[in-house]
Write a structure and sequence with these properties.
By secondary structure, the protein is α/β, with parallel strands linked by helices. The protein has a single domain (about 5-215), classed as Ribonuclease H-like superfamily/Ribonuclease H (Nucleotidyltransferase, domain 5, 2-Layer Sandwich). The chain has eight helices and six strands, in the order E-E-H-H-H-E-H-H-E-H-E-H-H-E. Strand 4 (about 130-135), helix 6 and strand 5 form a beta-alpha-beta unit.
């Protein structure tokens, strides 16, 4: 029986253009046939790393974690076999003006970037797959139409170009999904490197003998 391929996607930085906005925007993804390895990581971190007073915290977040939590979590991820890390980034100074001007164009831009992440999934992981499940943080929480547009775009316009396998797109609150909590640290690691020139967490992933790392700058 063919197994599944699981893709967890999150972003770091923002798509705003005000004075306090980030200079860059990053999307990161964990692509794995080894779902259990990824989803067990938050439990391991709670048991082995967090102080007793924080063991029951509902969600692990890279922004709120300390250096030890970030390091240990990414080290655990680095051990997962049959797994790739995909990330892309944009220099927001190069964003087209028509994208910046209207909310609708910003939404299409976000969907476009999500699609480019999915297109980077390595073909080697697409063999012997029965189903593909894409899990993303609920970006359009208050806009059902936008959520439906994103799901349709990923399922019908992006992945159908690569495979005829059934594709499910699931939008969830990250507090309810361990895979999303782990990929938050992945996006943070690459964003911190490109935005702050601090690449220590990115290097943990890149030094792994198990992970395939795929990187692309869109503009």
């Amino acid at each position: 029986m063919n197994g599944g391929l699981y893709i967890y996607i999150d972003e770091s930085g923002d798509l705003g253009y005000s004075k306090g906005s980030s200079n860059y925007f990053v999307m990161g993804a964990i692509v794995t046939k080894n779902r259990k390895c990824v989803e067990k990581i938050p439990k391991k971190i709670r048991q082995r790393v967090l102080k007793k007073s924080k063991k029951k915290v509902l969600e692990l977040k890279a922004n709120n974690g300390d250096e030890r939590v970030r390091t240990k979590l990414l080290q655990e991820l680095s051990k997962c076999k049959d797994t790739a890390i995909v990330w892309l980034w944009i220099d927001k100074n190069n964003t087209y003006e028509y994208v910046k001007r209207t909310p609708q164009n910003k939404a299409y831009h976000y969907n476009y970037l999500m699609g480019r992440v999915v297109e980077l999934v390595p073909y080697a992981l697409l063999s012997n797959i029965g189903v593909i499940e894409i899990v993303i943080d609920m970006y359009y929480k208050a806009k059902a139409v936008r959520r439906e547009e994103l799901e349709s775009y990923l399922k019908n316009e992006v992945f159908k170009k690569k495979t005829n396998v059934h594709v499910d797109v699931i939008q969830k609150d990250s507090v309810a999904d361990n895979g999303l909590q782990v990929v938050d640290f992945v996006a943070y690691a690459f964003f911190r490197c490109i935005e702050r020139q601090d690449c220590v967490y990115k290097e943990i992933l890149e030094s792994s003998e198990e992970l395939t790392i795929i990187t692309k700058q869109i503009y």
